[in-house]
Amino acid sequence: MKNRLDLLEQLQEIDSQVDVMKTAQNNLQEDMNGIAGTLAEARYGLAVLQSRAAQLEKEKGELEAGHAAELENIKRSETNMKEIKTNKEYQAVGREIAAARKQVTELEEQVLQKITQLDDLNSEITASLTTLAELEQNSEQHRSEKQLEIDKVQQNVDADSLRRDAITKELPASLVKRYDNLRSQRRGQALAIARDGFCQGCNMNLPPQLYNSLFKADDIITCPHCQRVLILKYQQAQ
Ligand SMILES: [Zn+2]
Predict the structure, then answer these.
(1) Pair 77, 97: CB distance under 8 Å
(2) 237 within a domain of the structure (yes/no)
(3) Given a cut of 80, is residue 234 above it in pLDDT?
(4) Which of 36, 136, 165, 211 has CB 3.0 to 4.6 Å from 206, enough for a Cys bridge?
(5) Ligand 1 center to residue 125 CA distance, Å?
(6) Ligand 1 is an ion; residues with CB less than 5 A from it
(7) pTM
(8) How much distance in Å is there from the Cα of 205 to the middle of ligand 1?
(9) How close is the Cα of 230 to the center of ligand 1, in Å?
(10) pLDDT-derived band of residue 236, with 50, 70 and 90 as boundaries?
(11) 29 CB contacts (<8 Å, ≥6 apart)?
């Protein structure tokens, strides 16, 4: 039975290693997700700026069309003026022209405002494009580095999986099942070291008779408190 305990110990060692490697892989994957997230955010930010610029262009175009229409109105009113007979009519058209000129001035100011806003926004877009290009380049590099690490870890996981298969073939299926269940119930640790009358898995005192029977090492003995399979480790004699 000593052999079974040795094999279980090897199994536990492999499984603990694989747990650590899987955690490392998950962390690497999270890093990759973070990189992708940052990139998506930067792309979204650029798209927002670009759509704001398109909106400003549209508004500027509308103001310019309004400006052209007012100029046309003024020209028409000035032509009409030549055919006016009465002073009253003349004054009315004059007021219309004055109002239209005021409108033209206002529209010109508004167009200028839009041009200033567009200039600022376009500088922002240019900067954002540069940042994004750098980010894309860095992300690609980081992403492939992380992927390489993930693949490297996976090779070790696969190698351990083969070693594990070889060990479990030598153990009774019922014992492997018991071990697997224990591992899932006991946060990955199916075995516990017994030393100085204690179970180091749960730090509880072991009944002396049970502890003594461990020295015979001829059976699989579990801790009565945490149910882990006990492995006896002697205190090194000084
Ligand atoms: Zn225990």
Answers:
(1) yes
(2) no
(3) no
(4) 211
(5) 63
(6) 199, 201-202, 223, 225-226
(7) 0.74
(8) 8
(9) 8
(10) low
(11) 146, 150
